[in-house]
Amino acid sequence: MPGGRRDRLLILLLLGALLSADLYFHLWPEVRRQLAEAESGCPCSRPPLPPSPPAAAARSARARSSKLRRLFAHPLYSAAEPPPRGPEETLLGRQEAVRYYRRKMGRWNRRHKFRREALNLTSPDSLLQLRQEASWLQFHLGITRHGLYPRSSPAINKLLQAMQDFNIISADYSQDEKALLGACDCTQIVKPSGVHLKLVLRLQDFGKAMFKPMRQKREEETPEDCFYFVDVQRHNAEIAAFHLDRILDFRRVPPTIGRRINVTKDILEVTKNEILQSVFFISPAGNVCFFAKCPYMCKTEYAVCGNPHLLEGSLSAFLPSLNLAPRLSIPNPWSRSYSFAGKEEWEVNPLFCTTVREIYPYNSGSRLLNIIDMAIFDFLIALEDILMMKSPSWRHSPSAA
Hints:
Blueprint: H1 2-39, H2 53-64, H3 67-72, H4 94-118, H5 135-141, H6 154-165, E1 168-173, H7 175-180, E2 199-203, E3 208-213, H8 235-247, E4 256-262, H9 263-268, H10 274-278, E5 280-282, E6 288-290, E7 304-305, E8 310-317, H11 345-348, H12 352-356, H13 367-390
Antiparallel strand pairs: 1-2, 2-3, 3-8, 4-8, 5-6, 6-7
Helix pairs in contact: 5-6, 8-13
């Protein structure tokens, strides 16, 4: 059995190498340390000194910091990025963006002034002024073809803090919801922007954020027999998606934070949309509730309610307006049909992938690879959603970021 003898020889050589490595890296340093102590005349090892107050404070601060902060402190996430090589790599030009937002803020101030005069409001009210150091403006100016923000951008943490702390000065439906109002067919469940009730909130520094309220409790699980778009809608999945996107270094998800708002003070009393005002009511439990007039969920049983006024939700930063930064929307070739009747081409054509690789815009650059990245990202988000259902202790404050 020459083969068996050769195998036994290889095993003996491997075990010998492992034993030698163990002796060299573990036993020999311990022998050298004991020999050095014997030569110095110290027969016993000194007890460890108590940590100095600064060291103890630093260790306590590290213990209090979140795992995400410790992760993002790793040099991998602070690696320098190459600066944009030209204006074609950035989404916005600074001067053009500042002029656009100043005109937009001027129009908002005029409408606000006329509204106050129509309501005979005489209390002083300061006009908004564009601050070029505003975190939302710095976020918009930092968008490039490589990501929505640089790896070590200080504006992102400031933007997250602002979205959680700043006062809300206006609330409204989103544009796609407005387009559907009055022309809603409630037999059609799927709409262009999803099935989650959402509101556009404007903050005191003129920044805008998308608010998605909490509709289900964290411990509520998705029924096994549900179809795609009637799945449980979780606001904290938006927050988790932002953090997972940062961990993967994609930087393609807008900054998102959790916040508890007062639905009476922060929505009902500041909105100028009469349709939104008309859908507020008091529930039998004494909570303040509201619902979508008819964009997706047309009945009061789909309402979201405060406790009695406070409502938890996610706030996602707005991207620049399409009027300022026109951009191309490229569909996913493997999009789901959301229908029982018929199948998409990729489900029936075995050569579909080869066809996609030969057509624009997937036949050049990294477009197709980016789509694959997003498919993996969606899969991980689904797993993360399951973990959050099992962990009611999930937190979404800035300290958890």
